[in-house]
# Entry
Amino acid sequence: MRVLSGIQPSGKLHIGNFFGAMRQHLQLQAEHDSFYFIADYHALTSHPTPDEIAGHTLDVAMDYIALGLDTEKTVFWRQSDVPEVTELTWLLSCITPVGLLQRCTSYKDKVAQGLSPNHGLFTYPVLQAADILIYNSELVPVGADQKQHIEVTRDIAIRFNNTYGEVFTVPKEHIIESVAIVPGVDGRKMSKSYGNTIEIFEPEKIAKKKIMKIVTDSTPVEDAKDPDKCNVFALLKLVASPEELGEWENKYRNGGMGYGHAKKRLAELVTDYFKPFRQKRAELENNINYVKEVLANGAERAKAVAGETLEKARQAVGLRK
Ligand code: ADP
Ligand code: TRP
# Structure
């Protein structure tokens, strides 16, 4: 099955990205025909400086490769190296109702957070649809926050096929429900754009400092606590073994446990989880040319597929008659 997903180079990758998306991407590559890309066109919607976007693109590439991306099998590239996707975006834009985009909660949320709504941010889901459709993707593994964008993609694909004939494969989203949304240190969704992240390859001391500051309620140490309402427990769920998690759940419910205690253990577990990949990450940093080669090779493979689909779409709408 063709599996595709994208991740924005909008900052250093964090454990929300890992548990919400990257982990699935890495697991799926063994069994499927995987296409993963770094969505630098999408990242432009939040106004990075040129150095930021270039630096973060390489950071994301190094993170993926260090964490186990199979550079031989998986097609891994930078979105903007295949500009065919922007032409398809235009063809799709012309059949996308404005109301469909107005209903997108991620757009509404970003505006509510004070981001100035540029046109790119508004039409972002159409570019995302083009990403998915141009590579004939069947399965799109993403975090729960992206579900609506995949629904928009399906809607656009069906509209296009109904209007012009069967050009696109209608994809399915693939969401790991058990992970849902990973909270950040302030309790909101962990996100690079909220500055509330714990980065995957952050120096261990800094990660610990952030973890010790995770927002909790003010229940006194001796009282019973509800693990399901606690940000620390939500993160423990991702890194603790089932037995240890059960023990923490009892400690929460029985009272007599301070949040500081749980945070300390969380910091250890997060550090241990990513320790095996640090060495490889450091090696890649000293071999940027290799990282660039991987992306260039991926772009070539991606371009071959994109070019074919785009040509079909052009013909379908009548641009080549
Ligand atoms: P960010 O919000 O930090 O900019 P992205 O929007 O680039 O992250 O998300 C990249 C991938 O990681 C997406 O598939 C998204 O669903 C997933 N993801 C991001 N943040 C979280 C989170 N807090 N919990 C679960 N998944 C997440
Ligand atoms: N919008 C996605 C995010 O912020 C990134 C993305 C861009 C994507 N194009 C995609 C994800 C295509 C899946 C498929 O996480």
Q: What stands out?
A: The CA atoms of residues 10 and 193 lie 8 Å apart. The first strand starts at residue 2 and ends at 7. The chain has a mean pLDDT of 94. Residues 7-8, 10, 16-17, 20-21, 142-143, 145-146, 181-182, 189-193 surround adenosine-5'-diphosphate (ligand 1) (CB under 6 Å).
